[in-house]
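Consider a concrete sample entry:
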Amino acid sequence: MIDDGNPLSGLWNGWVALSERQMTLGAMRKRLAQLLQAPSLRRPSSAEWNLGVLLRRKGDAPVGYFELCVKQPEGLGRRPDSQPYLTNLCVAKACRGRGLGRKLLKLVEDFSRTAWQGNALYLHTDDDPAAFNLYNSSGYAVRKRQKAQLCGLCVLSGSGTVLLRSFCMDCEAQDSRSM
């Protein structure tokens, strides 16, 4: 986000936000198409493969979606193994404010712990107060903050990217060994 007093800054910021949204939607559509070709609940062997779950009633529009993969948590030092990483969690606008996001997050946590034997769940969120409040009130802790990365006229990542981790029994010991 650029705020330098230039009257064109608002226009530029709107264009960047629209462009980022279109890139994100395109990437999600592509990954969802790949997931539907070979659905599996097995723990993936690399971050190249994701588990995607689309929630909808039969014959209705989707109301929620999440994507989960395994990868090394960014910026947390070396880890002996990858952990579950929540790539996306979305709730349809018409269904927000009813606790569906919290229920999806709980489903992701339970699945990560039981089916993939994860002992932590990592994720990130950009400047989205509703998402941050959901994760913060669900026991997630800020692990790293990043500012927007500018490259010439392009924003490479959103401002205020935050990496979060859920609390777990042995995470503090793991963090102190890896940093």
